[in-house]
Known about the structure:
mainly alpha; D-Maltodextrin-Binding Protein, domain 2; 2 domains
Amino acid sequence: MSGSDRMRGIANIRTIARREVTVRVRTRSYRLGTALLAIGVIGLALLPVIITKIEGVSSSKVAVVAPDATVAARATATITTLLNPSSSASSAAAPDFVISIASDLATARQDVVDGRLSGVLGIERAADGSLAFTYYSNDAASGRTSSLLRQGANAIAIADRLDRLAIPAAQQATLFLPAAYAVAWPDPARTDPVKDGAAAVGQDLLGFAMTILIFMIIVMYGNWVAMSVAEEKSSRVMEVVLNAATPFQLLAGKVFGVGSAALIQYGVVIVAGVAALAAMPIIAAKVLGGTAAAMSLPEGLTPGLLLLFGIYGILGFLLYATLYAAAGSLVSRQEDVQSAVMPMTLISMVGYIVGVYATTGLLDARSAWMSVLVQIPFLSPFMMLGRVAGGLAQPSDVVLSLVLLAAAIVVAIWVAARIYAVGVLLYGQRPGYRAVWKLLREGM
């Protein structure tokens, strides 16, 4: 191919892509969809603030009724610490629970019935001198508050026994010092710190969300490509276009055009989501006041992970979109597009389901077979981001999967171009798999 032919081919691809972008971006459905997606992502990003605002930020009130002032003071201090573990982190943050001392148990119980108190912890001294505890509340007996109060009751009872045994306060303090305890990775080669439960859950949710977004990018925009091909083919526009451009140029223009439209839409959505996350502490401070200290960005959301999300999203789209275009060229009616693209949809569904199950812990992400599946190009866009977010993927794993994915795209373009070259000129009944194989062997 001469240089002039190559330049003419690039110009044709650019023209087809520009037309595809212009037609899609100007449609009302595209603009409305972009706006709704952006609003939805902003809502999801600010969901913690919204839920906290709906539930209210007022502190729950728990009263303590004790047999003497010493026990009452100790119970108040112990329970306050247990029920408000984050209160010491920020003095400006309102405590989850306000603990007070009540003098009459019957009156306090009536306050719970009337809704003025969340609960009452009644403490009595038995005949043998030991303390007995009863929690009066409308909440579940096995709820978090009741479980924490049970821990507090044990600590209060032990301290009271030590008082009755005349153990000095200084010695009592040493008895309750926590033991040295640590959690470490089983693999001695891992030196990174073990993440706590909240951080692990945050990273799992982050990987889960990115897997869903990748799946939406591939399936939704891949269907756009197939529908566009079938639409032009059914209207006989394809025959006119083929007089000015080759089938490969038309294929490339379709993929790049829809990909550009998709990139614009998802760019708007991602910018809206990142802006909402960045502004969440400020918004929380305005809406919730002191509780804004509890609002923070998702654990593990780093520029590197966002870059990988973009790379896998683009490469995954290119891999599937070329095959979606080839499938769309095999049908003459838009009603037949879904059945034509079913094989790609099923493959992407497998990758999506396995990726989600591995991220949420339903499948063992550390197993050997999962390490193999994540390198399969048709599955890696859905699975690798969750492994990276969870700290399970090494840099070499990411590089290998990207190389294999890029190689698969080259093969997919070759296969799709051969099918597309003949498929766009086929009209009538959709050819079966044997006919497609014949097109693949004999294609231009």
